[in-house]
Amino acid sequence: MEQVKDKFDRPLRDIRISLTDQCNFRCSYCMPAEIFGADYPFLPKEKYLTFAEIVRIVQAAAELGVEKIRLTGGEPLLRKHLSELVHDLYTKTSIKDIALTTNGVLLPKYATALKAAGLQRVNISMDALDDRVFKEMNGRAVGVKAVLKGIEAAKAAGLGIKINMVVKKGINDHQILPMAEHFKKEGIPLRFIEFMDVGSTNGWQLSSVVSKKEIIRLISSQFPIESVKGSYYGEVASRFQYQDGSGEFGVISSVTESFCSTCTRARVSADGKLYTCLFSAKGHDLKPVLRSSDSIKEVKEHIAAIWNQRIDRYSDERTEETAKNRPKIEMSYIGG
Ligand code: SAM
Ligand code: SF4
Ligand code: SF4
């Protein structure tokens, strides 16, 4: 298997593909409602990559050593005929590890078909158990029950499940323990994510970040825990298990303990731009090469040439200054 490496010797191992920049939520840390309103310039749908183009990107990436893909957005379940894309990816590429990140509310409608099409795993975002806090954070007054139903549907369909919780100081940090306790009981791994300065619309400040250390201190005050060894190169979550054997949780500490030195991830926006870092200002348009011929080889060479030049390590270099002043692409566009 060919392996493409960047300037710091990091291989390209996984790709996140955004299927739309639109969403049925307006989470305050991602798409604040006051900015992402009716007049926000979302991508026109005709600019989206076709499913055939996405499949060719994934075929090319697989030949470069990519082992897993994640479909995301915006809200990927808003993309019409999504199970057809999953089926095509599963049957026409060598990658069998296909995952999806979603806010979960449309899973009761789609989970069974997605599983049948070849989807393996879902990460479901849920930031609070308390209805009031959750409604406020998702900006659309959607209650917790809608997400819990989505989790049930994913479970019934036989999908692997993890829960993502973004923690914002003073907003939902009091939900860390109730969430940990709930998903410990359910036996579903919960991932706490430090609030990040992605994009330039979410009003990020370092003081709103609850650090990995604080999260661990809080959970270990309630439950005996021990750390779990990472299972693969480039794993972004630090993992911990409960000593009573009831499962595990993780923390993604992109702000307080960055992991750029092992970052193996590329992202493709819904309109076909390849980004080599979550904090890039500019992407590399794959459409011209995708549309000039049917060759996988050319797409592969193009991606390899971009990755070879990669020097990104934004989180290692982050300061309050760069967080405020560097132009950055929005999370809902690039895919989380
Ligand atoms: N709509 C889907 C969802 O919410 O799961 C998929 C897209 S969302 C952009 C992907 C992930 O990014 C979610 O788990 C979300 O919580 C996370 N996210 C969004 N904005 C973030 C931020 N500013 N800091 C940390 N994580 C963020
Ligand atoms: Fe939508 Fe996901 Fe962003 Fe929330 S985090 S606004 S659900 S894309
Ligand atoms: Fe990877 Fe960029 Fe995040 Fe560093 S800041 S871990 S290079 S995506």
Automatic annotation (TrEMBL):
Binding site for GTP: 16, 70, 101, 162, 265-267
Quaternary state and interactors: Monomer and homodimer.
InterPro entries per UniProt: Aldolase_TIM, Elp3/MiaA/NifB-like_rSAM, MoaA, MoaA-like, MoaA_NifB_PqqE_Fe-S-bd_CS, MoaA_twitch, MoCo_biosynth_MoaA/MoaC, rSAM
Protein source organism: Bacillus badius
Signal peptide: none
Reaction(s) catalysed by this chain's protein: GTP + AH2 + S-adenosyl-L-methionine = (8S)-3',8-cyclo-7,8-dihydroguanosine 5'-triphosphate + 5'-deoxyadenosine + L-methionine + A + H(+)
Record: residues binding [4Fe-4S] cluster 1: 23, 27, 30
NCBIfam families assigned to the protein according to its UniProt record, in alphabetical order: moaA
Cofactor binding notes: Binds 2 [4Fe-4S] clusters. Binds 1 [4Fe-4S] cluster coordinated with 3 cysteines and an exchangeable S-adenosyl-L-methionine and 1 [4Fe-4S] cluster coordinated with 3 cysteines and the GTP-derived substrate.
Lineage: Bacteria, Bacillati, Bacillota, Bacilli, Bacillales
Residues that, per the record, bind [4Fe-4S] cluster 2: 260, 263, 277
Domain Radical SAM core residue range list: 7-229
This protein's pathway: Cofactor biosynthesis; molybdopterin biosynthesis
Family to which the UniProt record says this protein belongs: Belongs to the radical SAM superfamily. MoaA family.
Cofactor entry: [4Fe-4S] cluster
Gene3D superfamilies in the record: Aldolase class I (3.20.20.70)
Binding of S-adenosyl-L-methionine, residues: 29, 74, 125, 196
Listed name of the protein: GTP 3',8-cyclase
Keywords: 4Fe-4S, GTP-binding, Iron, Iron-sulfur, Lyase, Metal-binding, Molybdenum cofactor biosynthesis, Nucleotide-binding, S-adenosyl-L-methionine
E.C. number(s) listed in UniProt: 4.1.99.22
